[in-house]
Amino acid sequence: MRTLGWSTEFRERSWPTIAARLHGALDDSAAYEPVLDIVDSIIAFEAEALLAGTTSMFDLIVTPKPVTPPPVDVVTVRSGSGWIAIEHITHTGRNDRIQRPAQDGVALFWRFMIEKFGIHPTPTGAPPDRPSPRR
Prior knowledge:
Layout: H1 15-26, H2 33-44, E1 51-56, E2 59-64, E3 74-80, E4 83-89, E5 96-101, H3 105-117
Antiparallel strand pairs: 1-2, 2-3, 3-4, 4-5
């Protein structure tokens, strides 16, 4: 069965809460470190105001703000021993998934944010060489 977007209410968590949870998981396994690197990049680029996040077990689930009622298009991030998988889950069913080595996680995540949601790794979400289209 094909998933059609995030079908339940998106319960956003703060980025520091997500980071703390993942830091706690790192005590048991370094397999989640690529996901934590992505969360740290969101905080470092000051993109918390543009992206809403939550977790499902140790998967990261991200959608643009403001969060709309379901179904919601999301990007999920999963990692394992040496790999990371990022998937765009849409309400139209035109899902897109890429799996790469773990060290490619942050760049791959931001590629998905730019391509799927038009959000760049900047505080305004605009490309670094252009003013923000958002107000």
